Amino acid sequence: MSTLTPLGHDQLLPSVDSDLIFGGAFDPPHLGHDHVVRDLLAATGANIWISPTFQPRLKSNLGVSSQALPRSLQRPHPYALRLAWAKAWITSFEQASQGAERSRVHLLDEQELYRAQNLPCDEPLVPSSAALVHRIETARQTQSSGVPKLPQGHLTWVVGLDQLPLLPKWIQYPAILNRVSWIWVKRRAHPSEPNSFNSQIWETIVAQHPHQKQWLLETQTPAISSSDLWEQLVSQFHQSSQPTVDSAMAVPEPVRHLLQNLLNSAHT
Fold first, then answer.
1. 8 A C-beta contact, residue 225 and residue 257
2. Total count of domains within the chain
3. What one-character DSSP code corresponds to residue 25?
4. 20 to 30 Å CA-CA from 161: which of 197, 214, 220, 248?
5. Residue 229 domain-assigned?
6. Model's pTM, two decimal places?
7. What separation in angstroms does the CA of 222 have from each of 27, 91, 123, 209, 217?
8. What angle do CA 14, 52, 151 make, to 5 degrees?
């Protein structure tokens, strides 16, 4: 069972007027990601925005270099493909909504956000959470019909504890720390995450901002890795002339169908 605990005094849980931004490469989205979103839906009344990173700068292990692969199977995958996977994943939450209940899971398309503000998006976008916050805030003030659907409430970033050592590498990370609230996600038995908040990283970076609202989501999410999943797919590709994405693979069902299409096209 998951728990969402305030990291401070007198902090209420994120409410319906909050917007939780869950970013990541999502290359591909897997059931670990899905578990976190469902835990957040159960623990809060907030809207949750899935935000695929346009250019996953800090991901150094996305590629499978052991064997030659068609370009379509090489990681990181193009933003448009990862965006399509995220859209498919979100449909599973829409299908779960009943009656008049509106799905609280939405897509935040970073490229569309830039294009709506007449910013160049033909070049790789600089990955910066601070810049994304600024663009969201700017777009809220724009009345143009071309502006995509946006978060309207207080912004809260959802981040895995494995990101703590990488915070100093975030572009303008002091700015982003001060401008949004935070939900830190601690997954079960994940070796890359600190066991406690007594780590030097926590003390020197996060604890310096005691006035920011922060929560810890301790979840029973299984330790699933997108890289490990992709290794499985590559193995299928090399071992069979008709590779299949097994139904037991730890990805949402709508994503599994798209991955199967990708494997099929790579063999043609």
1. no
2. 1
3. -
4. 248
5. no
6. 0.86
7. 17, 22, 36, 30, 14
8. 40
Closest CA to 163 of 130, 186, 133: 186
Residue 162 lies in a domain: yes
d(CA 169, CA 129): 11
Measured from the Cβ of residue 13, the count of other Cβ atoms closer than 10 Å reads 15
Q: Which element (helix H / strand E) includes 200?
A: helix 200-201
Report angle CA 167, 73, 128 to the nearest 5 degrees.
Answer: 25
Which amino acid would we find at residue 168? P
Tokens at 230, concatenated: 């992709």
Cis peptide before 243 (omega within 30 of 0): no
- The one-digit pLDDT tens for each residue of the chain (268 residues) are 788 988 766 677 887 778 999 999 999 999 999 999 999 999 998 999 999 988 776 554 444 444 577 888 888 899 999 999 999 999 999 877 665 456 899 999 988 887 766 665 544 445 567 778 877 877 777 655 566 678 888 899 998 887 777 777 776 677 777 788 889 898 765 555 555 554 555 665 666 666 678 888 988 887 788 888 888 888 888 888 888 888 888 999 999 999 999 988 887 7
| Owning domain of residue 88 | 3-223
Helix (H) or strand (E) holding 33: helix 31-43
How many CA atoms lie within 13 Å of 57's alpha carbon, on the beta-carbon side? 11
Residue 101's CATH number = 3.40.50.620
Place of tokens 């019909």: 145
265 found inside a domain: no
